[in-house]
């Protein structure tokens, strides 16, 4: 059994992962609810529950935001706190949607929702225009290398559907996003409450000739093709049944993070650097000749070499360099600050190693994209540059080359709290080189 590239391409082009983001009360949950409702992706009992909840609040029409705001605190406060994932489909494409919060203190949740997205819908209230949180979300989308961005200028009904207001907001946002390096911005004027240009074209904005939100989601090309990235297989588990039927079976299981692997291919195991060839690939209990991105497989190797959880199997001809010095752009997500000299655990793929924050060269100011040099620490929701020294060599890719193997998280070794999400390599705003400072308080590698 061999999986073809045609089958792989079909799976990837018919599934779109996207996230919604925006400032507080810009209407994200209402947009998502409208999208689900008007595309007939809401079950009858779900809609009836929303109608009852809306009526109990004295509302004449169903509050479609309740389709996504599932937590009690979200319903009581009328805000989004947690990332809400929704799965729906149209005849053209399947979707995985992440509705992320708008409050600045929940910006970390937007990082979670957008980290696997191929498109981000950023909402703006037409009455307020581009605000700081809009810029923050655009910056995160750029840092996470989300290939496509949609600017949804919402509440156009409250500004009389004026084309000039939409055009001004679209021009300001596009200029800012372009400076960040966002590759593509599509601006759409909408009213999520009324339904203008969400699923159906608006009769109130005949000056707009572009797609509706759903039409764009159904037709945007999914260009971030992990199948054509550097092939990487993080080893998650070593399988040795040692049974009568399989006395000598030794396989290395994991989910292929990027690229493809073939039987007979020369591979290198990192960080040890030992080389061998693939003698077999098992997929769902059956042997295959080739395995692709996101498939969970067991790889068998020709030589009996030392391979364990946390190792990375890569093609010998395309192996990344290993390093103990990692430079990255990060978004700090914990309440406790990240400081120079901070002892952390760095989790990269399936491998976790001790590390020290050697320097924080800069913190990004979102208003003008300037860099505040040597802030000494990053607090919750800060975006900045860090230099990290690890106790063991790591095979890291640049995040611009691979979102899976170019990313990592920093963990508090005391309680396991996730501190920071990191993207290896240069960002859209690269700080000037700074001199590393020595560290003498314990974890000096």
Determine the structural class based on helices, strands and strand pairing: alpha+beta
In the predicted model, the low-confidence regions spanning at least 5 consecutive residues are: 1-13, 70-81, 429-442
Q: Name the average pLDDT.
A: 83
The residue fraction in helices comes out at 10-25%
Spatial gap, N to C terminus: 47 Å
What is the overall silhouette?
globular
Q: Name the quaternary structure.
A: single chain
Tell me the β content. Answer: 25-35%
Give the strand tally: 25
Q: How many H/I helical runs?
A: 8
- How would you sum up the major sheet? 8 strands, antiparallel
Radius of gyration: 24 Å
List the helices and strands and how they pair.
Elements: H1 5-13, E1 15-22, H2 28-38, H3 44-56, H4 72-77, E2 84-89, E3 94-99, H5 107-114, E4 119-125, H6 132-143, E5 148-154, H7 163-180, E6 185-189, H8 213-219, E7 233-234, E8 237-239, E9 251-255, E10 260-262, E11 266-270, E12 274-283, E13 286-288, E14 290-292, E15 296-301, E16 312-315, E17 322-332, E18 338-339, E19 343-348, E20 351-365, E21 370-373, E22 377-378, E23 383-395, E24 407-411, E25 418-424
Parallel strand pairs: 1-3, 1-4, 4-5, 5-6
Antiparallel strand pairs: 2-3, 7-16, 8-9, 9-15, 10-14, 11-12, 11-16, 12-13, 12-15, 17-23, 17-25, 18-22, 19-20, 19-24, 20-21, 20-23, 24-25
Helix pairs in contact: 5-6, 6-7
Write a structural description:
Helix content is 19%, strand content 33%. The model is unreliable at 1-13, 70-81 and 429-442 (pLDDT under 50). The protein is α+β, with helices and mostly antiparallel strands and 445 residues long. Strand 19 and strand 20 (351-365) form a beta hairpin. It starts with a helix and ends in a 21-residue tail after the last strand. The protein has eight helices and 25 strands. The longest helix is centred in the middle third of the chain and has 18 residues, at 163-180. The strands form five sheets. Strands 7, 8, 9, 11, 12, 13, 15 and 16 form an eight-stranded antiparallel beta sheet that branches. The chain has a six-stranded mixed beta sheet with strand order 2-3-1-4-5-6, with helices on both faces.
